[in-house]
Design a protein that fits this description.
transferase; 8 helices; ATP binding; about 280 residues; HMP/HMP-P_kinase_dom
Length: about 280
């Protein structure tokens, strides 16, 4: 029998398929791990924004987690949208018991700018889940929310990263620089000792719905397969770059990434695919 590794996403939904658990499961499949999901919130959203949100009861969240961990223990777990402190406490209890690799994508806003987490929940995130994280993957606005500092250059990126690891207790942080200006999209991995930069060409496109979910899910999949953190991030960076490069141009707003874009490496990008700044 092959050595089948499994990964679990704990997050909200996206019926349009570009973000949330749908994007995570697509990514797990493409990275050749068995994907499982626990739903935190049912979100009515598409490429133009979020129309409505319904949070599942915490006791039902607990039952979903029990169903997974009592049967198929995942080799790695990632979290996305978590709306309340009660949910965070429930998830933290499961993670502490399982002691599995844990990637946190601190989802605070939808691509449209719609807030998905209240201020109290952001504080609870730092208290209950950040200290358990093998890796936390904030973009610049999320890192600013977490640390309270303005991030506009490499020095401030590194300052925020040190706060998240040294003060908040995460084992490592991947600071995603897609919101910063420059010819390249640079991310910085800080493991508490050193920084590693991961760079790619900045892609001219508006079709970036679900990039954070896809990136963190790819890293989670590679950790599930036993890759080192540095190697998992490198593979994840390449995977999401291809997903953005070969955009599907779907929807009326910020379209989804292409989860099989990596299969198209070397294929010329179609004219008109890249039309706004990522």
């Amino acid at each position: 029998m092959p050595d089948i590794r499994s990964a679990l996403t704990i997050a909200g939904t996206d019926p349009s398929g570009g973000a949330g658990i749908q994007a995570d499961l697509k990514t797990f499949q493409e990275r050749e791990v068995y994907g499982m999901s626990v739903v935190t919130s049912l979100v009515a959203q598409n490429t133009t924004g979020v129309q409505a949100v319904h949070h599942v009861p915490v006791d039902f969240l607990e039952q979903q987690l029990e169903s997974i961990f009592s049967d198929i223990t995942p080799a790695a777990v990632k979290t996305g949208m978590i709306a309340s402190e009660e949910m965070m406490r429930c998830i933290a209890a499961a993670l502490i018991t399982s002691k599995t690799a844990y990637v946190m994508d601190p989802v605070m806003y939808a691509k449209s700018g719609h807030a998905l987490m209240g201020e109290d929940s952001r504080a609870a995130l730092k208290k209950h889940l950040v200290p358990l994280a093998t890796l936390i993957t904030p973009n610049i606005p999320e890192a600013e929310e977490l640390t309270g500092i303005r991030i506009n250059d490499e020095n401030s990126v590194k300052t925020a990263a040190k706060i998240i690891v040294q003060e908040y207790g995460a084992s490592a942080v991947l600071m995603k620089g897609g919101h910063m200006e420059g010819a390249s999209a640079a991310d910085w991995l800080h493991d508490g000792n050193s920084f590693t930069a991961y760079t790619a060409e900045r892609i001219q496109t508006k079709h970036t719905h679900g990039t954070g979910c896809t990136y963190s899910a790819a890293i989670t999949a590679e950790l599930a397969k036993g890759k080192s953190l540095q190697e998992a991030v490198r593979i994840g960076k390449d995977f999401v770059t291809d997903a953005i490069s070969y955009s599907l141009q779907l929807g009326k707003g910020n379209g989804p990434t292409n989860h099989w874009g990596y299969r198209l490496q070397g294929v010329p990008v179609q004219e008109g695919q890249h039309n706004e700044v990522y």
